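If you are new to this repository, start here. Below is one unmodified record pulled from the training split, so you can see the exact layout before writing a loader.
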Amino acid sequence: MDLILLYRFKNAIEGRRLLPEKFSNSDENEVPITISNRYPFKTFIQVIDELPVQFQKRDFSYTSILAPNATHNFNYSVRPVERGEYVFAQLNVFASTALKIVKRKYQFQNEQMVAVYPSFIQMQKYDFLAIGNKLTEFGLKKIRRIGHTLEFEQIKEYVPGDDFRTINWKATAKRAQLMANQYQDEKSQPIYSIIDTGRVMKMPFNELKLLDYAINSTLAFSNVALKKHDKVGLMTFSKNIETLLPANQKLTYLNRILETLYNVNTQFTDSDYSLLYAQIKRKITHRSLLLLYTNFEHISALKRQLPFLQAISKTHMLVVIFFENTELESLINTDAEDLQSIYHKTIAEKFSYEKRLMVKELNKHGIQTILTAPENLTINTINKYLEIKARGLL
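And here is the target side for that same chain:
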């Protein structure tokens, strides 16, 4: 009887997986599933989706009960931690009656591919916060403007709340009413994100490589800088110069940056800073803000590259961005209970101290720095950019 009930109807179950064109790396991405029951009786279903191999998940299962001629929608989420192509295999649906003696298998949508791009969800989040003036909710600071980093725009009537120092007394005398100068931020300043793709950026934190943290930060930061009418460019390097996008201020340029970042990968080589210096000197002729994403684990590694960083900083505003080892920080904050744990904690404190020494060494030579936990990279990078703009350092 169970066999007859399940197999007498053709195509009695319909299933559909609704995938977007692309996933956002390191974020939770929704995968909607729609199941329709064409049986004239209540049906018990089990959905087993064959996820891409990158997720290493083989136990996905969802169960539900569908009324006759009913449609059921549900979502599940996936969090990719690598960029590239992800292939979903079969969507399997097992149907059974109330007797549950026999199950009938239905299969749908074999091999659907989704490309995982740098975190555009993170980019949109900061874009929304900037528009809504809610930057402080995520740690972005309001920085007092210092110096003369404004360009004159127009003379307008003074209204309460305007800075009285902007009153134009000559225009006030002519118009017989208070007039004030209106200024706007300096625009079209060239800004380059430079990403080290050498072996030092292969280190993972929370399943995500340092390189991907840098890529996600570059995308979000570039969007903010473009909205502030600055020019943004991109360079990646290791043993060779792999990518060089000249600075541009068109909003559509963000798509080109996104597509370029999608194809960036780490190399298992030591990065050539002498080549980086030579390329910057030849290709970036105007004074620019250079955000260098890299990592130094030892003070000796920094000192080997310091002459090239000094040479770059002579003609450009250089910000060296490198990472705290959060695993070492958690080890430092734990109590030592035996001799071995004391030894491990001492070594961890030594490495942490060296990171602080690197910051002092770079600052001593006039090089701006960001030492950050990987998860705070985007926030701290945007804050540094806003600080440099406000202080007129560029």
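Two things worth knowing about this chain: Residues 145-149 have pLDDT under 50 and may be disordered. Residues 161 and 210 are 45 Å apart (CA to CA).
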